[in-house]
Amino acid sequence: MGRINTASLPDIVFMLLFFFMTVTVMREVELKIQVRLPDATQGKKLEKKSLASFIYIGEPLPQLQATFGSEPKIQLNDAFKEIDDIQDFIAQERESLDEAEQAKMLVSLKIDKNTRMQIVTEVKQALRRANALKIMYANTPVEKITSLD
Amino acid sequence: MARREVEQINAAPMADIAFLLLIFFLVTTTMETDTGLMRLLPPMQDPNVEQSEDQQIHERNILVVKVNKDNMLLVEGEIIQIGELKDITKEFILNPNDAENLPEKIEKNIPYFGLVRVAKQAVISLQNDYGTSYGVYIAVQNELLAARDEVRDELAMQTWGMRYDDLSEDQMAAVDDYYNAPISEAEPKKIGGE
Predict the structure, then answer these.
(1) Of A136, A26, A128, A11, the residue nearest B14 (C-alpha)
(2) How many domains does chain B have?
(3) In chain A, where are the structural domains located?
(4) Ordered mean pLDDT values, 10 residues apiece, chain A (149 residues)
(5) Per residue in B21-74, pLDDT tens?
(6) What is the 3-state secondary structure (H, E, C) of chain A?
(7) Long-range CB contacts (< 8 A, 24+ apart) of B170-177?
(8) Minimal-distance CA residue of chain B relative to A139
């Protein structure tokens, strides 16, 4: 049996490599909370991820619950934060964008579906105070909502 | 041309390097794109300015959707299941038979459509309790948005034979004008002083 010619193997691998390099988005934050997004059918795709800031709300991970309790908490970037920190966080995020893009800034709320609305409402009020009005309720896209739990 | 024999570069390890990189990117790749319900929050009101506009909206022009802490849904004073919400909302936006208890229609000139009768003051008001679970809140938002999107799509289909998302910006604005029922997330009641 003749040897298989492997000369074209690098080409194929490179092609795959370039594909993955272009589609890769690095995971930007390490989640310290559990977020199971709610289902929705009407979700729109987030077109430009660079314009989005993320606010996570949910219960701390099981291994962190001893220290932080099991009440839902807000995570901004890599740390647990309070409602009052949101205004500074938004200002910071806005600063990091180009002037032309600041108006297009969007806040993506990644909130666990079992969270009570109280904390969500407070966050929304904080966002209004910070004048970050474009928001997105992140969800898991589904064809049809089957159950509410 | 006298050519010296150029030694060929050994390309065999190249595949190995490429593989290594490939595996790295394979592992770090997250393919999923973020999706979400796009909403616009109302600007913060100046607490010193008296608000009188709200009271001027006639009752028939508001669809009140309330979700309580037990995740039950109250629409216009009736307890309903979430599956019914979309049709109720669509009927509210469309008001096909000019019903007395649904939004009042006023004649308005809209580009592409000419003089049409639209419910100019219709508002959908979504109110929730502090104890409502976020998942249910989003499900309700989703139904309201679904109703709005369906109504828009139907109009766009009738007029241009296209989906709303494929319309030009002018056309979209015209459709928005035609069915202009903003979903308002009510001011939380417990904010500012207990």
Answers:
(1) A11
(2) 1
(3) 28-141
(4) 77 84 73 89 84 91 88 88 91 89 90 91 90 90 72
(5) 888 888 877 666 788 998 888 887 766 665 555 556 677 888 888 888 888 888
(6) CCCCCCCCHHHHHHHHHHHHHHHCCCCCCCCCECCCCCEECCCEECCCHHHEEEEEEECECHHHHHHHCCCCEEEECCEEECCCHHHHHHHHHHHCCCHHHHHHCEEEEEECCCCEHHHHHHHHHHHHHCCCCEEEEEEEECCCCCCCC
(7) B170/B111, B170/B112, B171/B112, B174/B110, B174/B111, B174/B112, B174/B113, B176/B152, B177/B108, B177/B110, B177/B118
(8) B36
In chain A, residues with a C-beta closer than 8 Å to the C-beta of B30 are 24-25, 27
User: Would the CB atoms of B29 and A24 count as touching at under 8 Å?
Assistant: yes
Q: By C-alpha distance, which of B86, B110, B100 is closest to B179?
A: B110
Contact B144, B101 (CB under 8 A): no
pTM (predicted TM-score)? 0.78
List the structure tokens of B25: 């990117």
SS (H, E, C) chain B: CCCCCCCCCCCHHHHHHHHHHHHHHHHHCCCCCCEEEEEECCCCCCCCCCCCHHHHCCHHHEEEEEECCCCCEEECCEEECHHHHHHHHHHHHHCCCCCCCCCCCEEEEECCCEEEEECCCCEEEEEECCCCEHHHHHHHHHHHHHHHHHHHHHHHHHHHCCCHHHCCHHHHHHHHHHCCCCEEECCCCCCCCC
Those of residues 97-126 in B touching chain A at CB distance below 8 A are none
**Nearest CB to B138: which of A20, A40, A121?**
A40
Residue B61 covered by a domain: yes
Q: Is residue B32 part of a domain?
A: no
- Please tell me the CATH code under which domain A28-141 is placed: 3.30.420.270
Nearest chain A Cα distance for residue B41, angstroms: 5
Provide the pLDDT for residue B189: 57
